[in-house]
Design a protein that fits this description.
Elements lengths: L2 H24 L1 H35 L10 E4 L2 E2 L5 E2 L2 E3 L1 H35 L15 H18 L1
Antiparallel strand pairs: 1-4, 2-3
Helix pairs in contact: 2-3
């Protein structure tokens, strides 16, 4: 296979790939998902602000004025080595972890409430829709078996007359 044939094959695959990609992107559910991700990230920053700026100060007051973000367990204190350089402390900063867990719980609660709200709105719309009017009774459906039984009955009647 020469270079031109290889290039044509690659060009065909590229066009097929782009066509498939375009079809996938243009589907409604992908666009909906993208919008959901964007709104979700904006919502996440709102909840982070709620936790850090509104809830955590109250928790700090309850805990005696301790800055929640500074809660940590120091494994090794900061020190100065033989060369005179400062060595940073080694600590487990669990206050930040608790803040992140609280963020998650608030986001999960908000999403749960939104889903419940949407579900109740859908149920309300379903209950408000008028019931469809009953349809007129359908004419009896004649099956092949019914036709065959009718033919058999007529043949029996003819045979009895003979």
């Amino acid at each position: 296979m020469d270079v031109k044939e290889t290039a044509k094959k690659g060009e065909g695959k590229a066009k097929a790939f782009l066509t498939e990609f375009k079809a996938m992107i243009s589907k409604g559910n992908v666009v909906d998902m993208a919008v959901g991700v964007i709104i979700g990230s904006a919502f996440s920053s709102i909840v982070t602000s709620l936790v850090n700026d509104i809830i955590m100060p109250f928790i700090s007051i309850i805990t005696g004025g301790i800055n929640f973000e500074d809660w940590k367990w120091v494994l090794k204190a900061a020190s100065v080595n033989e060369a005179g350089e400062e060595v940073a402390e080694v600590a487990v900063t669990f206050g930040n972890f608790i803040s992140v867990v609280l963020n998650f719980l608030i986001v999960a609660l908000c999403i749960f409430l939104v889903i419940k709200l949407i579900g109740s709105a859908k149920n309300k719309v379903k209950h408000e829709e008028p019931a469809p009017e009953p349809e007129a009774p359908a004419e009896p459906v004649i099956t092949e078996l019914d036709v065959l039984k009718s033919i058999e009955a007529k043949l029996d009647a003819i045979a009895e007359k003979k």
